[in-house]
Amino acid sequence: MRINVRWMLAAATLLALAVPLAHSQAPAAATQHTFKQIAPGVYSAIAPPSLNGGSNSAVIVNQDDVLVVDSHMTPEAGRVLLQEIKTITNKPVRFLVDTHFHYDHTDGNQAFAPTADIIGHEYTRARLAAANYTTTGMLGNLLAGQSALAAQLKDLKPTPPNVTLSDHLTFWRGGREIRLLYLGRGHTGGDVVVYLPNERVICTGDLLVNGIANLIDGFVDVWPDTLEKLKPLDFTDVIPGHGDPFKGKERIDWFQAYLRDLWKQATALHDRGVSAAEAAKQVDLTSHKGHYPAIAGPGVNPAYMARLYEVIEKRAQ
C-alpha cells in the first residue's frame, strides 16, 4: 500500500508540473511538439500539456536513420511523436533509448516496437518486464476522472527494451558516434545517459533535470557520486528529461548540494527515531531556494521521504 500511495503522490506532482514544461518557443506549423535544434541533426522534443507527453524526448537524425530518446507517457503521445518527427526528416526511426523505467518516459514504447529496437539498462528491462509492473495502473486510478488520458491508457502494453546494456554501449550511425552510459544508481537503479561527444550534447533523462528531480525511486545516498561522473564528459548542451534544454555543468553542483543536504538531514532524523511522515515536515532545504525557487518553505514530499527511509534501511530496490 505504501508503494501505491507514493506513486500516486508522484503522479500528482508530475501533473502539477506539466504546464511549466511547455517550451516558450512556438511549435512548427502543424505539429504539437516543439522541436528545437540543439546541434546539427539533434533536437529536443517537448510536447504540450494537452498531449500528455509527461516528459521530454530527444530526436537524433543520423545519416540513414533516427534515434529517439524516451517515448512519453502514453501510447498515443508516442504515436504522435513518431508522426511529427516526419516534419523534420523522412528517415526511419530505428532506435529508441529508455533513459529509465518510469512510465512518463516509457509508456509510449509500444508505438516504436514494431520497427525500432528499444535499448535500455538491464535494470530498466527487468522493471518493465516484471509481472507486478503497476505504475501505469496506479496512474490510471488516480486519473479516473480525466477521460482523455484514461482513454489513452486503455491500450497500454508495457514494452521493455529488447536490447540491454550493463555499463556502456557505443555505436556509430554514419559519421555520428553515440554513447550510452550507465554511470551508477541515481534517479533509479538503471539510469542511462545518451552522449554525443562530437556534438558535445548529452541527454540526461531524469538523472539531471532543469529543477529538482522526482526522488520516488532515487538512491539519494549515491546520486551525487553518479552525477560527479558527468563532469569529465565534454559537453555543452543538456537535453534533460524535464524542463527546457540548458547549457553548462553548474546545475550538477546545485543538485549535488541539494541531495547531500537532504540525505544528511534525513539520516539524522531517522537515527533519532523520527517517523518518515514527520521527517518530511521537518526537513528544511530553503537554503537551496536560490537555485530552486519552487521551494516554498520547510518540508518535502512525504513520498520522497518514505523512499529515503527505504534507502537508509537498505530496503530499496
- CATH topology, by name, is Metallo-beta-lactamase, Chain A
CATH top-level class: Alpha Beta
Could you say which structural class the secondary elements and strand pairing correspond to? alpha/beta
- The CATH homologous superfamily: Ribonuclease Z/Hydroxyacylglutathione hydrolase-like
Average predicted confidence as pLDDT: 88
Integer-rounded radius of gyration: 19 Å
Helix content: 25-40%
Quaternary organization: single chain
The termini sit apart by: 16 Å
Largest sheet: 7 strands, mixed
For the record, the count of structural domains works out to 1
Q: Quick one: overall form?
A: globular
Number of helices: 11
Strand content: 15-25%
- Poorly predicted residue ranges: 1-5, 12-28, 140-145
* Order of secondary-structure elements: HEEEEHEHHEHHHEEEEEHEEHHH
Strand neighbour order, sheet with most strands: 1-2-3-4-5-6-7
**Under the CATH scheme, which architecture would be assigned?**
4-Layer Sandwich
Tally the beta strands: 13
